[in-house]
Amino acid sequence: MAKLELKYGNHACAEAAIIAGCRFYAGYPITPSSEVAEKMAELLPKVGGVFIQMEDEIASMGCAIGGAFAGRKSMTATSGPGFSLKQENIGYAVMSEAPVVIVNVQRGGPSTGLPTQVGQQDVMQTQWGTHGDKLIPAFCPASVEEVMEETIRAFNWAEVLRTPVVLLMDEVIGHMKESVDMTKFKDPEIWNRKKPKVPPEEYLAYKPEEDDVPALADFGDGYRYHVTGLMHDYTGFPTTNPAMCQELVERLIRKVKRRAKELEKNEEFMLEDAEFAIVAFGSTARSAKLAVKLAREKGIKVGLFRPITLWPSPEETLYRLAGKVKAILVPELNMGQYVLEVERCAKGQCPIFRMNRANGQMIYPFEILEKIEEIASGKIVIPVSKA
Fold this sequence. Notes:
Number of strands: 15
Helix content: 25-40%
Distance between the termini: 54 Å
Mean pLDDT: 96
Shape: globular
Low-confidence stretches: none
Largest sheet: 8 strands, mixed
Radius of gyration: 21 Å
Order of helices and strands: EHEHEHEHEEHEHEHEHHEEHEEHEHEH
Structural class: alpha/beta
Number of helices: 13
């Protein structure tokens, strides 16, 4: 029997983190993510965990990385400009292979932008914000229950891949209150990092195993190794050896890419016979789903494709989708970010139309419906991006 509890998205994120085994949180309050920190401050001491409010976002990210190397499942949460400030240390987490979860409850921007209003303007920053080549998994929930599911999934993959994972929410999802069936989270599958099977004197913290992921020893357990953001060899000490540098960067990307099919998670709604498709994520996907239902009542065969794993993007799935529909509409609360990825994956098989808003207001179902009607009727022929 379902056990329903009414929760805010941000609170659900914190509760799911505890369920996933998070025992360390470092953060700096920033709207609209602040409730994640507030809830973690309440919950962590009850389970023997540690909450630290740091002086800024840069320190928060660094502290979360330290928590990961100290053997604790670690998390930080932020929004908009705070996510920008974390970027250098997110790169450090990639290079040092620190398993850490970064929650970004997006708001409108650029800069301090619209602190209390919705936006989806960090889609590209999530993947390309920090410098250097890398591939960072990012999950994007569209309901409060899904926030819990994706938070746990983010921790699991961070631990297994030994990499930072971003939970990309938006203000509407973070501040929305919905029922959650807590029986689903009574005994979830929890994954943990690999521990070394060799004695300390034989341990190499950056020598990969067959899955390209090295085992990770906790600080304080007698294993000594060096942690740096510089290119490094298997010991962790810096190197400029060209072969070793190339091998390292290729492996950091490959260890995520080789699990891309397992990481991929999508929702398909009424796509079986669809002539037109909407690709939307987060809170915008909720409007899109209602628009699909309304369009179907008018006889327009349209369906919704909702990527839950935004990165790595579902390349092959989007390619197949583009090959079976007459056109794709991508509504986003930004001026056109994920549409670039859809266009890349579609490879010109069908027209792709944009629908963008960056003023802190939702895109409403009737607006998406109007756009679909225009596309289906042929009133819009040339996609805005190609005009």
